[in-house]
Amino acid sequence: MTPSTKIAVITGASSGIGSVYADRLARRGYDLLLVARRGERLRNLAAKLEQAYGIKAETFVADLEKEADLVALEAVLAGNPAIHLLVNNAGIARLSPVAETSIKDSLSQIALNITALTRLTQAVLPAFKERNQGVIVNIASALALHALPVSSVYSGTKGFVLNFSRGLQQELANTGIRIQVVLPAATATDLWDISGVPLAALAPETVMSVEHLVDAALAGFDQGESVTLPSMADTGLWERYDTARSDLFVAMQTGQPAPRLLSL
Fold first, then answer.
1. What is residue 5's predicted lDDT score, i.e. its pLDDT?
2. Is residue 261, in this structure, part of any structural domain at all?
3. Per-residue pLDDT tens digits for 42-99
4. What does each C-alpha distance from 80 to 24, 75, 162, 220 come to in angstroms?
5. If you average pLDDT over every residue of the chain, what do you get?
6. HSE (CB half, 13 Å, CA atoms) of 161?
7. Taken in order 155, 94, 135, 214, is the CA torsion positive or negative?
8. What strands, in cross-sheet order, belong to the sheet with 83-88?
9. End-to-end alpha-carbon separation of the chain, Å?
10. Residue 259: inside a domain, yes or no?
11. Residue 89 sits in which domain range?
12. φ and ψ at residue 202, rounded to 5 degrees
């Protein structure tokens, strides 16, 4: 992540994880394009970072659930050759049983966590591939690996982010483009305020600060990790999980029903 008048684009940049990514990338010398719905917060953050680090920070006010805003941002990403890094951080959680969740809430999670992330990734990829250089950081969740009775839709969307990112990593393995997917566990952000589960309901010792989360994710990137679980100390757990996942997939490639499922 060594910049030379390169731009990092960060979605959901007005607070939480996105705002700390903005600070850390500005500290590394990147110019910024900050994207979020809350324009005043974005402008205040941009001014603060320009003053602190001597970089240029522009803002793009957009609601990425809205087609017109998404199309406008896609055009910017596709048309600016200085963009070298995209942090797909914007996301939303609505934590409640599906039977008690409105279809609007379910679709808003899909629109922001899946559709926007996919479209913005595809907007930057052609230019990245043309110059054989670029970075995409996708923020998933520990709930990409697990589902709770209140997280069916959210876990489904973050499972998409994980698998989408891993497929891209294979697709781009022999290029100069890097894809990192980050799986935070509970993190102290304002996402909880609208999720249906207040942050105060969580055991304090299980909640990571946003600063620690972003610093750990960037350290993982610097160390070459393609999948970063910032709160997991024993990397062997992930390695065993990933090996078992691969073994399971290979074991399914037989073309025959499993003996237990054959009719007697």
1. 74
2. no
3. 999 999 999 999 999 999 999 999 999 999 999 999 999 999 999 999 999 898 999 9
4. 22, 9, 27, 28
5. 94
6. 37
7. negative
8. 57-61, 31-36, 7-11, 83-88, 134-139, 177-182, 227-228
9. 60
10. no
11. 7-254
12. -90, 150
Q: Which of 101, 108, 221, 117 is nearest to 160 (CA)?
A: 117
**Paired tokens of 165:** 């990112």
Nearest residue to 168 via CA among 111, 113, 128, 213? 128
- The model's pTM: 0.94
| Contact between residue 17 and residue 11 where contact means Cβ atoms under 8 Å apart | no
For residues 98 and 101, give the distance between their C-alpha atoms in angstroms, rounded to a whole number.
Answer: 5
Dist CA 130 CA 39 (whole Å): 33
Query: Considering the chain, what percentage of its residues have pLDDT values greater than 70?
Result: 97
DSSP letter string, 80-98:
-TTEEEEEE-------S-G
Directed axis angle between helix 117-131 and helix 67-79, to 10°?
A: 10
> Given 21, 30, 154, 241, which residue is catalytic?
154
For the four alpha carbons of 35, 41, 45 and 47, in that order, the dihedral sign comes to positive
Kindly report the CATH number assigned to the domain that includes residue 12: 3.40.50.720
Q: What total of structural domains would you count in the chain?
A: 1
For residue 264, what pLDDT band results from cuts at 50, 70 and 90?
low
- Please check whether residue 244 lies inside any domain of the structure: yes
DSSP one-letter code for 151 = -
- Going by C-alpha positions, the residue among 95, 66, 61 that lies closest to residue 194 is 95
Helix, strand, or coil (residue 264): coil
pLDDT tens track for 129-175: 999 999 999 999 999 999 999 999 999 999 999 999 999 999 999 99
**Has residue 262 been placed in a domain?**
no
Verify whether residue 154 is a known catalytic residue: yes
- What token pair was written down for 44? 């205040």
